[in-house]
Amino acid sequence: MPNVRLALAQTNPTVGAIASNVANILAVVEEAAKRQADLVVFGEMTVTGYPIEDLATRESFILDAELAVRELAIELKSRNLGEIAVVIGHPSMASAQDQTGWAIAHNTASVLLDGKVIGSYNKHHLPNYSVFDEYRTFVSGDKLLTFEHKGLKFSTVICEDIWQSGGPVSHLGKADTDVALILNGSPFEIDKDDTRLKLVSELAKKHNCAAAYVNLVGGQDDLVFDGDSIVVDSKARMVARLKQFKTDLVCIDIAAKDDLKVSDEHHMTKPNDNWQTWNALVLGLRDYVSKNGFKSVVLGLSGGIDSAICATIAADAIGAENVFGVSMPSNFSSDHSKDDAKDLANRRNMNYQVQPIANLVKGFEDQLQLEGLSVENLQARVRGVILMALSNKEGHLTLTTGNKTELAVGYSTIYGDTVGGYNPLKDVEKTLVWELARWRNAYALSKGEVEPIPQNSIEKAPSAELRPNQVDQDSLPPYDVLDAILDAYVNRRESSDDIVGYGFDQELVNKVLTLVDRSEWKRRQSAIGPKITGMAFGRDRRLPITNKYKG
Amino acid sequence: MPNVRLALAQTNPTVGAIASNVANILAVVEEAAKRQADLVVFGEMTVTGYPIEDLATRESFILDAELAVRELAIELKSRNLGEIAVVIGHPSMASAQDQTGWAIAHNTASVLLDGKVIGSYNKHHLPNYSVFDEYRTFVSGDKLLTFEHKGLKFSTVICEDIWQSGGPVSHLGKADTDVALILNGSPFEIDKDDTRLKLVSELAKKHNCAAAYVNLVGGQDDLVFDGDSIVVDSKARMVARLKQFKTDLVCIDIAAKDDLKVSDEHHMTKPNDNWQTWNALVLGLRDYVSKNGFKSVVLGLSGGIDSAICATIAADAIGAENVFGVSMPSNFSSDHSKDDAKDLANRRNMNYQVQPIANLVKGFEDQLQLEGLSVENLQARVRGVILMALSNKEGHLTLTTGNKTELAVGYSTIYGDTVGGYNPLKDVEKTLVWELARWRNAYALSKGEVEPIPQNSIEKAPSAELRPNQVDQDSLPPYDVLDAILDAYVNRRESSDDIVGYGFDQELVNKVLTLVDRSEWKRRQSAIGPKITGMAFGRDRRLPITNKYKG
């Protein structure tokens, strides 16, 4: 009876950092060897990071990745790790290009053993929806890879292959697969629920094999890979579930496809939705900061909920000592705004300074004879200039803090409160901002810590404070109504008539939809931020700016 | 012997404006009827405009477009135009969705006759490279449509179908096609040369049929459709060539597939490259302005070549009386800068004002204790605030004027000189900026007009004038060298080694490539502008921001 120890390696590669990604693979294989693993499986494109987008169309990049894989095989052997089968993801040159000459590479999983690449599998189903463009960048493969190791048969497939029907995955049973190895780069979406577990379980039952689903972890631009790798046996019983939002390495002893045992301690339950969303936002920001060479962030603190929650996410991600908050009161700023901003910074001991804007604004106002909306926008832009000047002077990444609801209806000043390289709340609608704030405070209390977010920032009526006594609801419907309309229009792509059919006022629906359509040009120039839903602004939703459709 | 009069209708639809696009189709068919046409062929997606991007994934949009087509057929009949066969492009619901549920529609060409839709063809080859994402948004069709009208056989195909091999287009001959009707949405690229004519000619010869290639005309966001529709006979002799960058309607009398005669006067030769590029830039800007409801533009005039050429493009596009130039001198601005800016505005009688920035800059400098690069960026940002304030106050579209070379290496201040909704020079490299300036002046002279661009703006050393005696070549290599390196790296996707192999200095190549990679986050937040090359920044080149690859 075989007894194969399979290690699932949930790693956090950086796109393009081939040498350091490979060094990390080596380190993980060495750790797995210490735990007596016979086989180590990594996620999709572990060698290059994922997604590589149009890097896949650069020949030098593909050749460098292939070379790194061959050198890794040799290095493993030279370190006496040649007997361990190592399964890694990387791009490889396709033998034939597509007709356009654009896609030249496969999205590949290779098996390294005894100093050599003993086999490769090329991803068949290329996702080309949502944030993915893999028809653009990859050539499809069509042959299952099955290999025997220590008496068991393993077959490899990649990510989208199990989300669609047909293709090599349908031959898993015919190939007498004991364990399907599924390499994934599957980004976090709160609405995905447990679809992955469901798919893996169905696959195990259908093809009568165990299945090891290995996902990446880490932030890459607007995506957050959440890990949460899973192993099920051929009877679809879950054997192991790896950590969410953290690198992890777990070993499984496999005697037969229906006899798997985990050899490490670990947790099998997923925490609640708010915990997951919060951790996705924290990891997304942390990795954007570190992978792009920043050490600190600067952001405006208005006393409102959006900046308060962004600062708290930042403090959780990179430490409060690396968060630089700037209060920029105007003549219209209330006392509570200034107090709440200071209170927020003090609760976590963030860096904090006050830069009043009244005199700076007055200079422009007088010179250009501005009034009304121009003055409102002007205040936001003067704040933007201050934040960017501090960023330039001190080397911080600037965070912008507009939530998804604001971004949807364009309730922001472009080149003003929108300045910054990264937006933690880009895909977080306003009602969820409040929910997360309450959750984060309760979580702190449950750990015996001070609530990070001032209660007043959560409870007061939201206001841009760009004119006297202004509140958001002067211009917008209540946020619960607005978010419901936006959910139908943006996330579910429903029509104006459908939405009115739910009981919303026709005029209000028209107004909201018009605001969304008219703001497209602003969204095109907006900072990236972590996708947490099935429909994030950015690559998920590609609409023309010039667009007269109403419906 | 048949004698069919075929009208090629080169129109300029607006994306989403279904009702007005249909009204325009009706007007064009009426005009064609006056000229005794039997058949009128329009471009791809004439009913909705093109490209519709993710509008194709909205069911209400597709249903509205289909309804409009059926109503158009009825309206044509009610106007006694029912005997004219009208071939139009539009999206239609596919009977089966793709597996992801994302793409629900076909990209369709329908034939209207006698009040009905008598047949439809669904595009087979869906372009999913360069700026196109049609695998994402459309379901592929696989059946040629052939119909007889007045004794001749016509078959329809759509755009990409003739750029790739295989698919329904290969059955043109088998279907005894006399005339292939090719509906296109083919954007202008200067490097396309006459590829379209070559493809159409080859198709005619291969399948022994005449071919009518009908393209759209007009600007849509970052694309400019140039028209230039073509008719060839079955011996691949060119019979007609429609105007470039203008709507046009030309009738052809067809006795047999090798016996075609044009019944209108028209020009068969294409003007030179600079004329074409200039007209693409002018049309792109004009349509962005008009289709988005603007009447005027505002831009900073520095006295330099980029702003001079942008202002001239704008004056050609929407009239000098709708161009508002703002000179914003600082303490570092030379006298010639101010003189050249004023000279430029005067030559065309543009609106012109001076807004000095020294006092405004000083306010920030003193409050924030800035020096060095922070102060350079600050000056650009103060100018951005001024332009946006004037835009907000007076309703102008703000133009940003950074050329492709600047955009490539990030030689700009984000939220400073990059502010604006549209950038006429986004895809124009610096060396081409100068070439176009010289060409435009010579063109003016040839028409007996005043040269619009001051000679001094063309000849002086380019400078950002953000510190005393600064010139661009303090930080950058000479522009001819820089553009050559960028052409290899960006446009041709070559490696660092390849580029060094051409004889460029290794250190310089590394520096330029690093500048390009590091500026990705700025480009993501940059304004759109007209694509004129095979590799424009934006949808043509999709690279990660977080990207450590050097090679």
Can you lay out the helices and strands and say which pair or pack?
The structure is a homodimer of 551-residue chains.
Chain A: E1 4-10, H1 18-34, E2 39-41, H2 59-78, E3 85-93, E4 105-113, E5 116-122, H3 134-137, E6 145-149, E7 152-158, E8 179-184, H4 195-207, E9 210-215, E10 217-220, E11 223-226, E12 230-232, E13 238-241, E14 248-256, E15 259-262, H5 273-291, E16 297-300, H6 305-318, E17 323-327, H7 335-348, E18 351-354, H8 358-368, H9 373-394, E19 397-398, H10 404-409, H11 430-446, H12 455-459, H13 479-491, H14 496-501, H15 506-518, H16 520-524
Parallel strand pairs in A: 1-2, 2-3, 7-8, 8-9, 16-17, 16-19, 17-18
Antiparallel strand pairs in A: 1-14, 3-4, 4-5, 6-7, 9-12, 10-11, 12-13, 14-15
Helix pairs in contact in A: 1-2, 5-6, 5-11, 6-7, 8-9
